[in-house]
UniProtKB/TrEMBL annotation:
This is Uncharacterized protein.
Amino acid sequence: MDIQPERDMLKDDYGNYYVVSNASGDSLTIINAALYYAFNQMIDEEFVAKARELYPNDVACGKFFADQVMEHIEELEKPESTGNIYPIEEVKKHYDLHVKPIYEDSFHM
């Protein structure tokens, strides 16, 4: 199991997806995928233009980030993809996981 940051994703038993934001030895830092995308996007003119192009009608901004997660999942599900979506329970057998919640602190699993 060779998990790479920002490429691979984890999925829990509830259907939540996580992006690996950092990998160091047998330790992974993961963050909910929608939050990962939301906190890595600046709200600027380019963002607003892209959102207006994708969604001509008013939508919640969360839709934009949820769709980015779906695009990531779809890329990983392609046969030619070098990445993978791993079950979180399987990953926990091989790695020490550190989960980044919404706020700045993190907790350990």
